[in-house]
DNA sequence: ATGTTTAAGAACGATAATGATTGATTTCTA
DNA sequence: TAGAAATCAATCATTATCGTTCTTAAACAT
């Protein structure tokens, strides 16, 4: 198989899959790791993709650049699992709140076809949701530049007037005594309100956020169900304090 | 087999296959590698294909020529002029309303560096505005899929609580007796409210919208200043009814 | 018949691509 | 936090491909 053909193949795969492992490509293309690695490096040099430990990631449009530390394929795929599990919890006729952030953003494709209404404070989320033909209500208010999240008093007041069956939140810290925490005070306020307005709340996090404490407290540990990928032994005791789902 | 025949054969194959290996051609044509290589080199010199290591690749299309005919390009440029003039009207400390739609979207780059607050009901607008580091408030509410505009009762109510120094609106129809009109009833309602809440309102339109009437009425002809590119003689009489700026 | 021209194949050193190996680095797991 | 496992970049020998040159053979002109 010609070098060029491999390159096209790799890019095609990335269109559909977001992340690829080197091993995956070795099997599908029948070439050695060395060759695949060389291909990936070349394509990265051409700015066609981003190399990450274990494989490669689709290059993002300059828009929803979350500048996250998505440094390994494994990390990405675990994260994807969390989003998938969360989306699985959504039923027809739910009115859900979708918090801004990349993890909740990843849920959206899995919501396709569900007969639901989504309220969100994420600007990119709103755009994608409507692309998937999902009834979307955007929370109004001031926009934070880095995360493109709607925050501030206007937003808070607007949330007062609505109620959700389920809320799906991103979070920076999850700790038994400090509860759920996040760095930005204003974002914390919005998150807090969304959780209070929701019948049932879920916090989506990868393991790196467990046992972490960030600046601003959002809620107590028992107010939300945690959805994550895999708990270490030490983290198992979180289960004594709140509901946990493992993807 | 004649040289010319081989050449046509190779090009035919490329129509279907995108890439060819030298070996492949050696087998199908029953000639030596040397000959095939000579063929490929010749064809490359004639710009009929691209040589790659191991074979050849179909020549890429002249990279998505802007295919727009001159008329369209000119049209776009006129539109750009309108946006530019509108942006020129914005001063420091203004609190402006930016209606959803492409014409107002085009204003954004020209707002760079101004010390202003922008309220908008356009989701893409909000994203771009924050990229330009402009203080942005997004109106909350239901999102219309096609235009990514925020509309509906929630949005209307939110507009009740704010006031603007200037509002910049897109519009589908401008007519002396019917005033300003647009196809979607809900969008019309939002536009109407924004205009009422604004000290001064501008409607950005290209000539094709003049003397047009759409379904839903937004405002009377004298409520807004029209910003457009060039008026035909017949359209000059609009000036008797409202203020007009020509870009 | 002889020399010229042209296309083709063969030969070969140069260059490029590949896959295996290795030791360093990163990530994972206990 | 230490050791194991996975992944990495760098290197090297092997193989594939390339461009060039040389040779042969047929077509054609003189």
UniProtKB/TrEMBL annotation, chains A, B:
Protein keywords: DNA-binding, Transcription, Transcription regulation
GO molecular function, one term: DNA binding
Protein name: DeoR family transcriptional regulator
GN (gene name): fruR
Domain HTH deoR-type: 3-58
PROSITE patterns from the UniProt entry: HTH_DEOR_1, HTH_DEOR_2
Taxonomic lineage from the root: Bacteria, Bacillati, Bacillota, Bacilli, Lactobacillales
Recorded superkingdom: Bacteria
Pfam families the record matches: DeoRC, HTH_DeoR
């Amino acid at each position: 198989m010609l070098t060029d053909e491999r390159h096209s193949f790799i890019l095609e795969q990335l269109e559909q899959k977001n992340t690829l492992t080197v091993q995956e490509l070795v099997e599908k293309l029948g070439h050695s790791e060395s060759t695949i690695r060389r291909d990936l490096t070349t394509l990265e040099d051409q700015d066609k993709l981003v190399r990450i430990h274990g494989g490669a990631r689709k290059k993002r449009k300059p828009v929803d650049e979350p500048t996250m530390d998505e440094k390994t394929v494994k990390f990405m795929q675990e994260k994807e699992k969390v989003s998938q599990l969360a989306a699985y919890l959504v039923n027809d006729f739910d009115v859900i709140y979708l918090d801004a952030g990349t993890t909740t953003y990843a849920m959206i494709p899995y919501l396709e076809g569900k007969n639901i209404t989504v309220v969100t404070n994420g600007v990119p989320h709103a755009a994608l949701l409507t692309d998937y033909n999902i009834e979307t209500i955007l929370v109004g208010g001031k926009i934070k530049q880095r995360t493109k999240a709607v925050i501030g008093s206007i937003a808070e007041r607007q949330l007062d007037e609505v109620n959700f069956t389920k809320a799906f939140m991103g979070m920076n810290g999850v700790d038994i005594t400090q509860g759920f925490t996040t760095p930005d005070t204003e974002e914390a306020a919005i998150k807090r309100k969304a959780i209070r307005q929701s019948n049932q709340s879920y916090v989506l996090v990868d393991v790196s956020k467990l046992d972490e404490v960030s600046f601003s407290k959002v809620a107590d540990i028992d107010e939300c169900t945690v959805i994550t990928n895999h708990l270490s032994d030490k983290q198992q005791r979180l289960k004594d304090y709140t509901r946990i789902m493992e993807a």
